[in-house]
Amino acid sequence: MNLEIAGNVQGFKQQDGILTIKTAEAEARVYIYSPTIIRVSISKNFNPDDPSFAVIRQPLADFDFDESSANIDITTPALKLSIQKSPLRFNFFTAAGSLLSEDDARFGTNWQGERVICYRRLFEGERFIGLGEKTGNLDRRSATYVNWNTDAPNHTPESDPLYKTFPFFIGLHSGLTYGLFLDNTHKSYFDFGASTDEETSWFGADGGDLNYYFFGAQGVAKIIEDYTWLAGRMEMPPLWSLGYQQCRWSYMSADEVLNIAQTFRKKQIPADVMYCDIDYMDDFKIFTWNKKTFPKPKQMLDKLKAMDFRLVTIVDPGIKVEEGYKEYDEGIEQDYFAKYPDGENYTGYVWPGRCHFPDFFRGEVREWWGAAFTALTQPGVEGFWNDMNEPAAWGQNIPWIVKFGDKFMPEVRNAYGMQMARATYDGTRKIMGNKRPFVLTRAAYSGTQRYSAVWTGDNTGTDAHMLLGQRLVNSLGITGMSFIGVDIGGFSGNPTPELMVRWNSLGAYTPMFRNHAIQGSKMREPWEWGKNNEQIIKKDIEQRYKLLPYLYSSFYQSTQTGLPVSRTLAIEHSFDGNVFDERFQNEFMFGDAMLVAPVESTKLTEDVYLPRGSWYRLSSDKFYEGEQIVNVQAPLTDLPVFIKAGGIIPMQSVVQSTNEKGDGILQVHVWNGREANSFIYYEDDGVSYDYEQGVYYKRVISFNPIEKSLSLSSVEGSSKSRFMQLKFVLHGFDGVKLQEEIIENKSGEIEVKL
Ligand code: GLC
């Protein structure tokens, strides 16, 4: 096998915003996207179309650079890229000259066959976070990962790869931060010094260009903001999708679905969403209903609606090979399926038996797929669960010669699920008019947040999986995904009642709160765990509903800045070693103000690390200074949740579904602190796209301890609030009594003195 190295610079030119550098073996292109984002792409053979599934921004026009005999230097207000000429190396500095990241001086970028790898210097004490849905520790130092979207049932807390590809990581060293996104859909590799004597980290892919975006902003949150500026942010989710979701493989009939929904209402356990897994279909044929067990889908949906429930149905990509089945016939006739190079449709086995697979890489196929959702939207389905889209086929080894678009499977596999989610989102958004669809996908690639929520696939009902799930959520949040769920209780196996209770309490603080289980497992609904546990589960679900005003505003924040709802502590406390300690690495901030510490179901006390700042236990208002490890009570009725001093959390009364108005009082909870704080409060109708036309309600809630005041700025946007009245609820303010006062929620400025 030959080793081809990128070699020495032979010449360069700048045109149309691209600095092109030639060596004997390769060409490198440099682009500037913003003062903090520089793109470098190195290739032996550039594709002139320069496609990207992830990036939605264009580079800036021509930029200045300085040339010396040794280097070409590009300087932005925030970053300096120093390109060494002999041999070609790319070294990044802050504008002030601190080294952020550099090629390994010995090896740089090179090819073995089509596989291209970039070797980088590993800094002393350097930590790495990111890569999305990856097992292992929060700090990825000394670990190695592969991106190859995989159907991973029965995965363990060590398995790699799983379902999704997010080739974006953030490096932390010497008090500095940088990010790197390898935009390449081939099988890719990231190694953070697993076996290199602490010298080298490396990344690359089995083919394509070494095409990366370098982020030089200082601060992890700023890098996430830049990355999501580049690859897009989520849009406002339908409010109902933030309620409690009940799923199972499968509720086997319309009667069973309705029964479960009714039981929630009868028992007054709040819930918003029921799911139909694969058995609602006729023989697993996508876009059909089983005529025996789901004979009148519209009637079922009307009944669900009357109970304030929405329905989400599953769709898989595999189209059953069966003449007379509409989607099969149309797909054959229009030539919409993935093919072997001889033109034959590829056939693989999934739930329906022999299947063909839509070629979601083609626009006309995505349109066709999207339009087919009328079979589900007409009776009233509003959520679309995209599964098995790695893509999965029994045997898990789709031949490499199968073609999607003009590419072979290994070139684009990692983007297949994303393109399915895109087709689903675009199509349902169109046919649902002004209503927001809810799309959920298992496989994903960078940028998927623009179309869909994700869940972490087939986990298992163990404590280790509960903790792993939280790490996956926290890590996905670094890579632009905010709307994330895990199967609460574990998909496979049967959790103990204690684990079910504990996991549900964590679910209340998970961006998407869905209970789901494999066929044949013990029923999982909240009332299946004994009377006492049912009450605990109910209380935790109620807590979720109380938090909806805070949660919805936190999602609004994700749409604006890309910051995820569930945030690893490493975002804000990037250089605090305790945050990476295995005992504390699963802790996270839920929005701006709440710190949640996951605790195994077998432990009733727990060591919790509280970072800088001061904190209050949510359940008791007990005060703690930060930067210390505290041992706290953690009974199953009280997951350790702490509020940051100065924290502002708008809450509402308990409702049975997001459709209910409740008592109409917005409770603004504030925890005393030494520093001023503010919170952007956001509301809209929760279902439509009117907010894009300014029909929303937004105001800043502020706490100022120096002036001893609480205030709400005057309302921005043309919508009314669903809360007619307002009540401040104070925590930790000795002697100050405002608790009982209910005031009018008027739209002009509101200020109260403490
Ligand atoms: C896959 C999904 C799981 C679903 C099952 C049946 O295993 O990950 O969530 O229930 O297929 O559709």
How much of the sequence lies in strands comes to: 25-35%
Mean pLDDT: 97
Q: Report the span from N to C terminus.
A: 74 Å
Shape type = globular
Largest sheet: 8 strands, antiparallel
Biggest sheet: strand arrangement: 2-3-4-5-20-17-16-13
Helix count from the secondary structure assignment: 11
Estimate percent helicity: 10-25%
**Strand tally, please?**
50
Rg (CA only): 26 Å
* Low-pLDDT windows of residues: none
What structural category arises from helix and sheet content? alpha+beta
Structural notes for this entry:
This protein has 754 residues and is α+β, with helices and mostly antiparallel strands. The protein is built from 11 helices and 50 strands. The strands form 11 sheets. Strands 2-3-4-5-20-17-16-13 form an 8-stranded antiparallel beta sheet. An 8-stranded parallel barrel has the order 21-22-23-27-30-32-33-34, surrounded by 6 helices. The longest helix has 23 residues. The protein starts with a strand and ends with a strand. Alpha-D-glucopyranose binds next to loops.
